[in-house]
Structures
1.
Amino acid sequence: MSWISVEKAKKLEERFGYPKVSESKGVVSVEVPKDKFIEFLKFLKEDKEYDFRMFIDLTIIDHGEKEDPRFQGVVILFSPSNQERIIVKTWALDETLPTLTTLWKGAKWAEREAWDMFGIKFEGHENLVRMLLWETYPYHPLRKDFPLEGIKDTYLPSLNETLRGDVLEGMFNYDRMHTAIPTMEDLEITQKKRMPVKTSQIVLNWGPLHPGTHGTIWFLFDLDGEYVRQCDIIIGQLHRGVEKIGENVNWQQFIPYTDRMDYIAAINENHAYVLAAEKLLGIEVPEKAKWIRTMMAELSRINSHLLWLGTYALDLGALTMFLYTFREREKIMDIIEGISGARFTISYFRIGGVFADLPYGALDAIEHLTKDLPKRIDDYETLLTRNRIWLSRNKDVCIITEEDVYDFGLTGAVARASGVPYDIRKIDKYDAYGEVEFDIPVGETGDSYDRYLVRMEEMRQSIRIIQQCVAKLRKMSKNDPYFFQTPDEKKLKVTIDGRGMKLPAGEVYASSDNPRGELGFYIYNKKDGLKAHRMRIRSGAFYNLQVFTKAIIGRPIADAITLLSTIDPVVGETDR
Amino acid sequence: MGIKKVRPKPQTLVEKIFFLDFIKGLKTTIKHLWKKVITVDFPYEVVTPPPRFRGIHGLRTVDGTEGPEFESWVKRLKIKPPEIGETRCIACKFCQAACPVPELFDIQAEKLDVPEGHPHYGLKVMTVFKMDLSKCTFCGLCTQACPTDCIIMTDIYDLSAYTRRNWVLDKDMLTQIANDFVARRGKEKFNEISQWREDQKLWPEYDKTREKLWDFNMPKLGPNYQDQTA
């Protein structure tokens, strides 16, 4: 399902001789030697039969200090014409790899991140600087020899509570030694390295604490008058090392951390993670859990899009929208709160299903909401869609072409607005998405207006999916299981609280369609274990944000707000 | 594969000249002008959280509603059999094992200081149970791991404090919180063996403030599944 077949991959082996094909849980990966790496990828990209045009992800696996060679590069590609994926791997000998930016421009940030986190140099990269941490930071934190708590080398007692001058000790106090924090000089160096050559007089800094950036993103605009000539983005202010945490906590225990990545659509984050873990476990969740999960994921999508619409309109000067959308959001959050117990950081899904059945009256409330919402969305559309100010601020603003989508690995509404019907719900058909009917809204030109229209239509489609889920769930019994029941406790243990749960060895990549794009989890497990060896999070928002630096070129500075809002990144997910 | 193209027709000349787009928009806003206020006037009005709400933790005491396996767990961990009003905690540390941030717990058990031959000789009792809620993610994994349904989550959500020390709750505080919650809303949440009730409501229907945030158009709660009864 959505992966290249082993036979087809074997043909590559016959053709070139050097690739080694392996398969694990339906995920097909091809290993090639480093010197043939670029040649092989170029073939995959340009060959008509294979056509792996779309860049999905690039990451590194650290196999541990004692292994030699130690680092392995992993590239995930997608073929839009065949609707299948492939993983290409190579060993990073001497801690270097050839750059992929000559083939896909979108690899630029991924390579920066790999350098930042693993210290792998990419030969031929135009400006290999750190992605998430500041330039003078001496370590590479995702290496296996870097401790989870960090290297505490800065004396910082001021965080501790004091009583009459004495620092108190206790559970509530921090260690006096702290991990390194950037100083103003460090940030200045970082900023200069990001944009080494200025083309004009003014470099405008936007953010990191500007309300228009929807979080902590730091933009650098090289301005010629009002027009942007060069742009770069400094992210990482919200970096918490979620991938590192994922490699150091147990399987179910990681779910609350995924909530805190894309905090606007926490359910969808949980969803992608549990899908990947279930794929690695090789289990099928009960029917009822599938439908509940689909329904909740779509509720969360509407919730996320409502927040996007409100803040987007607010940024462009339409304050009223914000008040209206937040009224509807409140109702959705109220339902989610009743079902799972939390409004925002939900962690309702578990590997193997959901942690509790729906409470009494949940389906009624959701049905009530789906009857009410279409009218409200019509209201929003009468306010915005044909409004002349709205049109002039959005139409033909910051066009993202189909070529960009493949080059930069754009997913979600941004890809769909550019005319690429890329939707994981249709491609992978995870959970109950194979059984529900819905359309993929697709734009024509790829401007901001299209991205707006696509998201509005997505909300309507989500309502359609929820209605089908409610109808299906109504027919089920209250005694149907909502959590996976293992046939043999000794062989396969799946628990709601996650104690003693082991996942088998193997590698797996599974993704879900987050409101912000494809959120994928690449899990590499060396041996059966309580923890993952490598947990890579392919963030849709991260790759979508990258196209900002290209789409803004030649546009006036005022369009930055429109473009950023329509790309709709959440900093928790870009920074992880 | 269903693909739907989105692109409305461009503005017509009539629309442009007569400002129809603005008039339509104004109609919508004026319609909303006559609606009732939906803002909840916190803190003078509060919305009662639903029964499943994941708020501050509590430690339940023995009150005759323990699950059927409670006795065997007490025996297995060599805990002094608790009497009515004493804590249910058996210091098994399952909550700590299930916690994404295990260092927030400080759980200790001590052997009772009684002479040999005493019925409680060699048995333990939980003495320290501290939780640092500033580190808590309120995910609820500890409540799902607890074998004796001791640790629960209550509906208290305001845990702001002047110092970090106030976030560290000890055994007595947690017990008091749980006792208070069970007396207040225990019937809504738990059944007679301390499990979650099957007919837990999505939200408490006696709460009239919630109507406000639903635009005075509340859904009526009914059974979910065809074989479910009220």
Note: The longest helix of chain B spans residues 171-189.
2.
Amino acid sequence: MLRKNQKIEVEEMKRKYWQIMDEMQNIFRDTSDNYRQKLVYNLLNAVKGNNQKEFFWMVLRALNTRLDKPEVTRLSEEIGRMYPLSSSEFEKLAYSVIMGIMSVKSKGGDKNE
Amino acid sequence: MSKSKVEEHLNQKSDESSNNPNKLQFTGNWFIDAGILGFVNLMEEVYGWDLKELQKESEKRAKAVYYWYFPIGYICHVVRERQTKEGLEKREQIDSIISEIPEAPQTMNEKDIFERAWEWIINNEPLIEEKEVKRIKMSWAGRYRILTNFPLFQPRYDLKRQKDIFMSLLGLKEIEDEILRYIDKATSKFLPSASDFPNISFTKSCITMEDLFSLNSKAPIFILTYPLAFISETLDLFGYQIMFYSNELAFTYNVSKRLKLYLKKASERDYKVDIFRVTWNSIIDSVTELESLWSLESMYLIKIKPPKGLRQDLDEVEYIGIPKLQASILVEDPIREALNNSVLINKDLRVWVLEEFIKNKSLYDVVLKHVSYCLREKNERNIQRKMSLYALAIDAKIKENNEIELFSNRFLEGFRSLVNEIKDCYSIINLYAINISRLFDNEEERRQIYYSLISALKKKNRIAFVNILLKKFLEKAGNKEVSRLNRFVFENIIPNDISWENYALALVIGILSFGGGYVEEEPED
């Protein structure tokens, strides 16, 4: 039974990461390619150093500029509830955030499906 | 093998077994089964009948096979085998006797057929020996000297007594001799002797000839033939004889035949022989031909050393069956073909991927070593892409499913869904390997990235791996492959603590594939 519960928990977490990724994509939809590229680069460096504090500082600062988006409040609350995270959980959340930003369609390139 | 084929085969088997009491088939007792295999080998050697033909003959004219052809064939073969190099002339004489064995008499009862056979035997001078008494010297010698104490072989027993024993073994005469009634070490050296178990002299043996008759009406015959089930080609190479045993006669017969052939070839060419590899090569060939999935799960290699003086030791019985999981995967043609490859993992070291799989070793490690070696040698073209991707898919799915419980639905359905998952996984990683190969079309760029990716994989550093990849993706943000690959990474690498390395290595193989001219297959879906 424990195994089943664990599986359900893992699936729920996966759903949560997908949601975070989609919301990040919506929030940063109208930003410039350059801005997103720079942001992603910095975030990747923070993940590499397993620096949660710096990572969330950058994410919240970026979210603060997008307060007009309805998803921002929910996402900030979610992050607040989760923080601080184990390094394995942090890795997964961080990449959901980064890949959400990366998956915004590039203005010069192809559309994201 | 498809489900319907399995069922068809099973139905066919049960029909055949219920309709034909004379059909040769295994009993489940390995000793008697060894005798059955030895019987088949004997008849093949003397009369040239293979299993199919012997089955046909024993169903059509059982009396002739068991009471005419068997006694004559057995005695001729044993006497012939007893001749050493010095007895070349006698060997030739017996060969000519064998070539002139007459057809079995028709329309007679069993006893009369045997009487005639015996008469024919004793009328052939070269088969008879006359020292203290007139008898046939038919104890096993030379390479088959593992059955020597049986009453039939006693030097004091004359022709009449030998005939009586033979008739008792064929069920044509009541068993009078106590030594025949109780089956002990005199019959099979695998049974305990009175010196091992002192109470045996009081209790006699727990197994009687009647027990054997109830197991199989021809069981006593098979006591005589079991030494012939062993392959003696290994004797010079390893000092022991082996017998391959599984629960199905046709499968065992086929594997043994191939095994003999491989060993003969190897010894002719002076190859270093690996028994495990040779056996498995034979098994794989036979699986392909006979589609015997169920046999894969219970296979044994029985090794025996020839006796030294009075010592008769059972050397080793090695279980070489593979788990249900591996067996289910192995019967799938594309998977088996992909794994049945040897790959270089070091300058002088080749690994047979199938062997690693059967031994339940990590296929991921093999692929990583193979890819690293090819990179070290700057020879990316030598990477066996299809094998590597299949191995990674199998390894990933086994890791992800390693908590399958006994008697769960998946266990009972024979891991069919797992095999499908493996095929799907292969299609997916193959697709993304092609996608990523299109992304990195510059030789220099590829060289830059794959060394660092392999290094991250070796350190099991997922963050480093994903970072390197995402930074590269960022540079190519406009490319349509990027968003697809992003999703692949997000689905299979980031949240996957169990098998992320398998998917990651598949991407590296994809990067290495570009321009090598061996992106050989398009994805199936």
Note: The first strand of chain B starts at residue 129 and ends at 130.
